[in-house]
């Protein structure tokens, strides 16, 4: 089969913050491409945004490749762009289109009911084996879609969901993402994670066992933590360095440090291999110690991100965050002592949040003083526990393009806080946190080159423009 994989454009949903937004090679499509190719299929990847393609360009590229199957991936805010591309293809060609990603995994029936002419199936969960079996179906080797796990399709004009697909347990068995199908120089990280040289993204694990009410990650990657071996991770990093000239890596695991012993061993192997790389990773605040951060720093890690969310214990409990304020303070303190930059992520608008709890969170952020703080407005993503509380079963008036935590328009509201309140609180938090002389000094002393200074300055301009838009509203 000839399979074309398409990433939906995304940057336009950021508002003023698109000045600071990065664009990343989509690892999910990269893994699917490599897996299909390993099984004998011909695969191409189309990323219209970074390639600068217009709608007409996209159509010409699709016609030129002439695929049997198109696989598209979309998050919630870029679903509108995925739909636009799917309609364009269907209006001009008779091609089977499968939609995957977090939005399709969250609302598989709804999408097919509303857009029956645009998508043939929606895919739920991991996509490697699902896409392979769709190829076999189109070849005639699988007789009916009913026999393919992890999809939804229209059966007698009604959505029919097949049995769930089991998560892939042996991640080491998967081929590395097919990065040779794209021009990696077209991709760049967010300005606040920009480093001089070439950047790539990797994942070293899949699945998150935590039950945060605001997160839908488990719908695509499962609720069980599955990890690649340190040797397998090192092999991919070596490939990135030696074959692609990469010197900067963003580890996109939900939490790289969940298995602290595996994280330490991975760092030791990078150190022993004497690879000249810099990298960023996310960490859970409970499963850390001084040795871990020391090893991460020696292995080239320059910054670690923590999901803090709130400084109010009741709000944290409502979110099902298993963290205490003491654990948060300890983790960020240990990371700093280990020589790492720190990023802390907060969410305003969770159950129990009031102006008082938000003020408490802002004060806490100032006290622990991470290198960067991100004050996000709650986004009740489809598939999360809080989505149904906000929207019930009626999505007709929902604007998916606003489902961006750092976007202009707030999506959610609480009994105590209106959407305008949340926009103002985001404005206030950034104003208080970043316009303190102490914080400006903290940021400046981390800058190591003119390139970094320029990127931080761009991020600052984008943030100010975003803050102005919140204040006006």
What structural class do helix, strand and pairing data support?
alpha/beta
Strand percentage lies at 15-25%
The shape, in one word, is: globular
Total number of strands: 15
Oligomer kind: single chain
Short note summarizing the structure:
The protein is built from 18 helices and 15 strands. The protein starts with a strand and ends with a helix. α11 links the parallel β12 and β13.
Which characteristics define this entry?
alpha/beta, globular, six-stranded parallel β-sheet, 473 residues, seven-stranded mixed β-sheet, 16% strand
Secondary-structure map:
Elements: E1 2-7, H1 27-38, E2 42-46, H2 48-51, H3 55-65, E3 69-73, H4 79-92, E4 96-100, H5 102-106, H6 108-114, E5 121-123, H7 128-139, E6 151-155, E7 158-161, E8 199-202, E9 205-206, H8 217-221, E10 226-227, H9 230-244, E11 248-251, H10 260-273, E12 278-283, H11 290-298, E13 301-309, H12 313-318, H13 325-337, E14 341-348, H14 355-368, E15 372-377, H15 385-391, H16 419-434, H17 437-444, H18 450-472
Parallel strand pairs: 1-2, 1-3, 3-4, 4-5, 8-11, 11-12, 12-13, 13-14, 14-15
Antiparallel strand pairs: 5-6, 6-7, 9-10
